[in-house]
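Morning!

This is the sequence you dropped in the shared folder:
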Amino acid sequence: MKKTVTPKIILNNLKTWVSDPHTITGLLFLGLVLSGSLRWHWGHEPLAYILLLYFVISLGIRLDEIVKRLDEIENRLIDLTRSAASQAFQQKDQLQKVSSQLETQAKEETAAEPP
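The structure's back. Tokens below.
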């Protein structure tokens, strides 16, 4: 079965592709390197500095993504911990109620037994 490609699909894919910070950074530095070497006749040294700057900025973008991911994981763990703690407190309350009911029944049975 052949898939048809509609302009809507192309635009959605293009929006996803363009919204990626790595793509934007790569295209920006590619344009800077091409214009620097072709238009301004930069030598090896300025191009090496531009490449180093690109790696530093790419690393910063990646570290930002990692921090966001860790924040999401931390928030999920906090939510899980809170729900587990609330469940533990509910179970503790239920066990205390059952324990008090059993103690009451035991007292009634010992009081009802003839000496």
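Headline: The mean pLDDT is 89.

More detail when I'm at my desk.
O.
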